[in-house]
Amino acid sequence: MSAIIQVEDFSFRYRDAGSSALKRLDFQVEEGSFFCIIGANGAGKSTLCNALVGLIPHYFAGRSRGGVSVAGNPVADSTIAELSKTIGLVFQNPFNQLSYTAGTVAEELAYGLGNHGVPRETMHEKVAHVASLMHIETLLDRNPLELSGGQVQRVAFGSAFIMEPRILVLDECTAQLDPLGSEEIFDIVKDLNADGITVVMVDHDMERVARCADRVMVLSKGRVAALGTPQEVFTDPRAGQWGIDLPDYVRLGLGLREAGFDLKGLPLREDQAVRAVRGLIG
């Protein structure tokens, strides 16, 4: 696979900030992969998401060095409108996603399509399809500002997905959803990834990260602390220094090992953990 996102020696400091939010990041994301970004609060995860989609440097003021390229195009030399055809962002706060110009959810979903000149008939078809996927068909005539946080989160995800980008950047996009709603959204995300869409996901649910990610990058104080497969990252002896939780099954494996059991590999999934424990207790 070829890299669809390339970040080279990239640093960024917000205007009037005392220190850089991102410091000399170097990594790439392969096309079609599921790439997860984790780290403690304040590590720079949302700032990086903004840099990937062009909000940095085109919206947030500050000083940057190095470069970010998406599908071969330097973000600094592309407009946000141009980038939106390739990469879409679902914000951590879904209310930041709203246009505040649409009177109904249907109009909100169609907002980006209208900006790109999509024919009205096609627009209606896409809105109906996305509303069905997001389970918001009954909300299409509602005012977005009258919805609950969870409902707005579904609308926000739908407004990004409806543009059919090659890359979806998800910045803790299920924070307002209950566990069932969160899993419903991630079932959709996994299906999109299986269909070839590149997913870049920021999440605090380490079980979900371990289950979904091809590669995991840990940010710590604006720097890349680790980058590798879920097993490589979560079994790294330095993991406790990064301010992240470990998946329950990794903690189980560590506990068993510390208790003197000989485990050849730390379990990262429930089925592996169950087999390990059954083997130990006979």
From TrEMBL:
- Provide the ABC transporter domain boundaries: 5-246
| GO MF terms, alphabetically ordered | ATP binding
Entries under InterPro entries matching the protein: AAA+_ATPase, ABC_transporter-like_ATP-bd, ABC_transpr_CbiO/EcfA_su, ECF_ABC_transporter_ATP-bd, P-loop_NTPase
Source species, please?
Bifidobacterium favimelis
Pfam families the UniProt entry points to: ABC_tran (PF00005)
Q: List the protein's name.
A: ATP-binding cassette domain-containing protein
Into which family does the record put it?
A: Belongs to the ABC transporter superfamily.
The UniProt entry, under PANTHER family, shows: HEAVY METAL TRANSPORTER (PTHR43553)
Tell me which Gene3D superfamilies the record gives: P-loop containing nucleotide triphosphate hydrolases
Q: Which UniProt keywords apply?
A: ATP-binding, Nucleotide-binding, Transport
